[in-house]
Batch of 2 targets.
Target 1
Amino acid sequence: MKKHYLHLSVYRCEKCQGPVVSGSLAVRENEISKETEKQQIGAACLACGSRQRAFPEETPARHFPPIDWPPVGGVNGSSVTAAYLEALNRAELH
Ligand SMILES: [Zn+2]
């Protein structure tokens, strides 16, 4: 069964050394398959509020275990489309 995951990681802010929380979404076709459709959804510093777009590869980050994150339609355009396509696929099966 297809599952959606939210990944969170934390690293230090370039400006203030505070914690920057970075999120990305990924999809797994089933329990044992690799994650696909991985997309960065943004990062922001909790201390100074600085928005950080690019994930700095060289910065050591702490990664949290992925969280179940089923799409509810409305996070962004592409997930709405994905949910719509999934609904269409399901409809065809019946
Ligand atoms: Zn900061």
Target 2
Amino acid sequence: MPDDVVLKIEKLAYGGEGLGFVDGKVCFVEGALPGETVRARVSQSKQNYAKGRLLEVLEKSHHREEPPCPYVQDCGGCQYQHLAYSEELRWKEIQVREHLERFLKLPGSRVSPIRSGASPYGYRNSVTLHETAPSPKPQQFGFVGRDNRTTLCVDNCLITDPRLRPVFTEKRLLRKGEDRISLRVGENGMIFSGREDQLFSMRIGDESILTSSRGFFQNNLEITRQIGQTARAWVQSAQPRLFADLYAGAGTFTILAAEGVPELMCLEESPASFGALKENFRIRGLKADLIEGLAEKSFPRYLKRKPRENIFVFVDPPRTGMSADLSEFLAQEPSLRHLVYLSCHLGTLTRDLGRILAKKRHEILEVIPFDMFPRTKHIEAAVFMRRL
Ligand SMILES: C[S@@+](CC[C@H](N)C(=O)[O-])C[C@H]1O[C@@H](n2cnc3c(N)ncnc32)[C@H](O)[C@@H]1O
């Protein structure tokens, strides 16, 4: 392939790169948009695909916009600020549909329209800031850059909750010996770091849910509320005997979705999140089996000890997905009648669902993409399945 190429961009691939063809070979160009003709310098040429660096947009898409953030060229956080938000949503929905069609042979009609929040900016309630090399800026920390190596000092970040923004210009945020810090803004506007293990509350719709400063919490609470509502409708349609939340965190989705289910069980491996989970149930007077442990080990053991019928399983694993053992178990165990898989990574989602569907005992009823992370390449998807 020549060093510089001219190509027409046909679509936006999962990850946000423009995709076109050069001499029949797929070429990904970061920053290029569908409908555009661009000139790119080939930076990588493999057998099946190439990657190019955008040099010039020869014919511009009418959906191209000026990114509002001045750091967007160097910061690794956002991939879609140069695209109209309605188009970002449209392409994310297509990415989910195509991914599931391609890897699971799922008819595209099972994927519902993507759901989004009121604004694509100001939604993130947490940030992780990394130490920089010494710089002229007063603050010596920032975000990991687009090159994945350098750290970029920023005075602001438009996708974060405005109440977090003062931290970007603090002089002494990192203490001696720290190379990063994670901060989250709570319901009352106070900012908490993971330095001390503290419980504080986050508001999702009508619920005030405690989280630990050292544990996981969802980043976009408006979308979390929408997912909770959707899951609640699915649970109500299924009328289960037991709701089992296997990657429960602080218990968010049991609280949002499982009201009225006769029995509840939550499983969580992080001791910090488990502490918040127990407290959330104690305050509400909710009775549940709460287990601190690994889903893949503890869930099969739990059901062996206490067998049940008509179980609704909710899984929301980390980006890495579920273990093969757990997918196998969920596929085989007949008492697990319904399953919701909430995922922030299409690759591990289709891998895990592929393992479940391979047993031919389940069908996917609905997939809903949610724009949990506007302006970035990330997509959240909720998949509702039932046992045949
Ligand atoms: C994506 S978060 C979801 C948490 C929760 N559903 C929520 O919305 O807040 C994944 C959670 O799974 C926990 N986790 C990770 N691996 C696990 C495992 N093998 N077994 C049980 N929990 C695990 C993490 O500590 C984290 O709290």
